[in-house]
Amino acid sequence: MSVDKDRIRDIALKHALINAVKFNGKASINAVISKVFAEDPSLRSAAKEVAQIVKEVIDYVNSLSIDEQRNLLMSKWPEALGERKVESYRKGIEDLPSLPNDNKYEVITLRFAPNPDFVLHLGSARPAIINYAYKLKYESLGRKAKFVLRFEDTDPRTKRPLPEAYDAIREDLKWLGIRWDEEYIQSDRMGIYYDIARKILEKGGAYVAAKDTDCTPDDWKKSKMMGKPCKNREADPSINLELFDKMLEGRYKEGEAVMVIKTDLQHPDPSVRDWVAMRIIDTTKYPHPRVGTKYVVWPTYNFSVSIDDHLMGVTHILRAQEHSVNTIKQSFIYAHMNWEQPEAIHFGRLRIVGMTLSKTRLKALGIRWDDIRLPTLAGLRNRGIQPEAIWNIMLQVGVKPTDATISSANLFAENRKIIEPRANRYMAVINPIKVIIKDVTEELTAKLPMHPSYPERGFRTITLKPSNNEVIIFISRSDYEKVSVGSVIRLMELVNVEIIEKTSNALTAYMHSKDLESAKKVNAVIIQWVPPDGLTIRIVRPEDLRLVEDEGLAEHAVEQVANGEIVQFMRYGFVKKVGNDRFIYVHD
Questions:
Q1: Cβ-based neighbour number of residue 443 at 10 Å
Q2: Does residue 420 contact residue 586 with C-beta atoms inside 8 Å?
Q3: Which is nearest to 568 in space by CA: 412, 420, 415, 446?
Q4: pLDDT of residue 2
Q5: pLDDT, mean of residues 395-399
Q6: Mean pLDDT over residues 279-293, rounded?
Q7: Which CATH topology does 420-588 take?
Q8: Which of 43, 220, 314, 406 has its CA 20 to 30 Å from the CA of residue 259?
Q9: 113 neighbors 169 (Cβ within 8 angstroms)
Q10: What class, spelled out in words, does domain 190-301 have in CATH?
């Protein structure tokens, strides 16, 4: 049988990447071959040739770092990551309360609408996850559902979009396992906003306050605060349309004219009264990164959002409680245009203790947004936080109207549940102290499991050969400080020793016994250790907004760990390998 080698490679690559991402960067040839045959049983007749192709693919995939594997899988088969994640979140998704009036709509349409003036952080992950979770919930019930990604980038002056943020946000969402059905960028839709503005002006639902009229922008501000109409408010629509055209033609400078939506001048909240829908921004001073100086008249948030939510068929808007006043403001656009307003669900504020989430403060730090000190999704990803942990946190918080508080400790606890079964165990000692063990007459051998709960992952062996009846090992300074002369300590999976001398930079000990039971009888403390030829390592550890570097020694087995893989240095914490001898501290 002749086989299509390129097709087999493609199938094998997909399953090798899925398997590798699932199992710490190492794909299993037997598992991948089984998946290939399951996808195309006809290939069994060419099993030998298929196995050779799969082996070549496995060798390639296993040569990549975990991050490279994940990125390749995301770019070619994003649904594979998404399906795996969705299954693990299924219970939390099912527990979400039903959306109001959900039976009224043929297609439940939700949206996530970030401003690309910065990348996503932990706080902005909440609306993204909750909205997408509802799409999945309704699809699981056999309903049609849609998720829209919309970039809201219509304020080049005060919320200037960053060119690189658009793709960064897309990557953040893909990393979370979120897939959108439609994508829009508001700066591409300026003509739509102008058309709707004209329609509202024609209907008499808006007016223009301009410097060369009896209703200047200052007059408008003073009048609305007093609950009184500005003179242009009741002018003939043709006059206000003419003024709007003058705005578009660039005949007014920034601040000299605004288009205002008619609302309720007696509303108790002055911000709701006759609010600005269109304003002038001098794009020669503040050019837009995508459209440059093409436009000078820009829609405000509430104007563009109302139009887009209607035209994109959004049925339900889930957002934070602080947006409740925006729902009121937007209701006037829907009334003027005779549109049906989407259902609005406002959840409580999310306070995150121990992390700086202010965009202004994060920008002011002057460091890359993927820095491991930052609570940006890119920073958390680089640090070793798993997307499942963020999903679990956000689904626990849910859409409750009451405020909620989470901490970095909560996030780390969720992440620990995910990485603990995946992370193999290794020994490392920080600020190493020499220990000389005397009266050793034979080789000492330690058999260490890769993971105590998963013996099928295998073991590694460390052998120490005595020289002049002595063996040298290293322990961490923190353990050194806890022991005293006369105490017995158990060297993990090796022997028990009794301390006979303690100096400022070393310990001397005699062999006490070998078995664990003897150690228990004398309440010996179990500590990790490293052989004398240990690998010098450096671990970068975030402390608030500082970076601390821990130096130490690790067993040489860590050299086989793939870059991007997370392991546990026993009694130190989880770390992510980022170089031959460099690691990032994830958490304890």
A1: 10
A2: no
A3: 420
A4: 67
A5: 92
A6: 98
A7: Ribosomal Protein L25; Chain P (2.40.240)
A8: 314
A9: no
A10: alpha beta
